[in-house]
Specification:
Length: 358
């Protein structure tokens, strides 16, 4: 058995020992699917790590549980497993480093750490080596602290803002008046859901593209019944549109990987006789959806609606033309522009692929 399996089993053991009723060694062995000898070793390891074990004899058998421990030092009840889980969640907050939220989290985790003994911290380190997370493709908000504070304050005060915003969809900087409703974190980015006075509807503004904020003397009333989760429910990401029924057929090779994930709350999966997988969705037909489908290449085929199928076909043909042209002529026009645009001794950085929000 690997060291990782042992640590995960001991984590489950701690969770069981916190719950009621108390358990015997035989109970624990049955619930964890291992031998009683293994449970005896785990109990010794857990106690050596600093977890206070209690034992009560009843009817000739020993019943084990975790004692209250440090709970008396907290203003609210918190179990060992809850505390450790909270501490381990720190890596999930990596994209928020440098923001006001990050400062508060750092303070919180410093206090949590102070509640743990050295043996407990050593056990926690072993858990981290067996169970960790990694955040990729997130935006850097280390210089956005003042901006986030201004926006957060305006949301709480229900204050209309005037902003200078770099709109990628329009390709220019615009001045807009907005009523900020809520900050929304998704896919490594922070977005501001706000009512735009220019477009007269709620839009998602990428926080890093707000170049300047000026508070106004006007306030607003949040529309009754407005729910941001409902607002984005029909989207495949952040972009909104009229929901349509979409059916995508994934190859048998790709099917197991597709089936093990929840891609959208509306998804319905149906295996076909040849092992392929038919996915049905009720989503907005947006650029995000098209990019996602195209990312699977020939392993995904749009069956419905026919308009989306035609758009994907045209895009696939355009991609084929880029590469077939490159083979026929040595390089594509885009590649020629790239090469002739380079200066000696310099490297041109790859342009990031951005999803159009506003």
């Amino acid at each position: 058995m690997s060291r990782g399996d042992q640590i995960i089993r001991q984590w489950r053991l701690i969770t069981l020992l916190e719950s009621r009723p108390e358990r015997t060694v035989a109970d624990l062995a049955r619930e964890l699917g291992c031998s009683e000898r293994t449970i005896w070793r785990d109990l010794q390891d857990v106690e050596a790590a600093g977890f206070p074990l209690g034992c009560e004899k009843r009817e000739g058998r020993s019943h084990y549980r975790l004692l209250e421990g440090f709970r008396c030092h907290l203003p609210f009840p918190l179990s060992y497993s809850e505390l450790l889980s909270l501490y381990l969640s720190r890596s999930l907050l990596q994209p928020l480093q440098g923001t006001p939220f990050s400062d508060s989290f750092d303070s919180l985790f410093a206090k949590l750490r102070s509640l743990l003994s050295e043996p407990l911290l050593c056990f926690l380190q072993k858990v981290k080596e067996s169970l960790s997370s990694r955040q990729l493709r997130y935006k850097d908000y280390s210089a956005s602290g003042p901006l986030i504070e201004q926006v957060t304050q305006a949301i709480m005060d229900r204050q209309t803002l005037e902003i200078r915003y770099h709109s990628f969809s329009r390709g220019r900087v615009q001045v807009r008046k907005i009523d900020p409703y809520r900050l929304w974190y998704q896919e490594g980015g922070i977005y501001l859901a706000a009512y735009c006075h220019l477009r007269q509807k709620v839009l998602m503004f990428a926080l890093e593209r707000i170049l300047e904020i000026r508070p106004t003397s006007h306030t607003f009333v949040l529309p009754e019944g407005f729910d941001l989760e409902d607002y984005v429910r029909g989207s495949f990401g952040l972009l909104r549109g009229e929901p349509v029924r979409v059916k995508i057929l994934f190859s048998a090779r790709q099917a197991p990987w597709i089936a093990e994930r929840i891609w959208h709350p509306s998804q319905r999966l149906q295996y076909q006789l040849d092992g392929s997988l038919l996915m049905s969705l009720e989503v907005a037909d947006t650029l995000e959806l098209k990019r996602w489908i195209l990312g699977f290449g020939r392993e995904a085929e749009v069956m419905e609606p026919k308009e989306l199928r035609e758009e994907i076909r045209r895009e696939a043909e355009a991609v084929t033309e880029v590469y077939s042209g490159a083979r026929a002529k040595g390089q594509s026009r885009r590649a020629q522009r790239y090469r002739t645009g380079r200066r000696k001794g310099t490297e041109r950085p790859a342009a990031p692929l951005r999803i159009e929000i506003v």
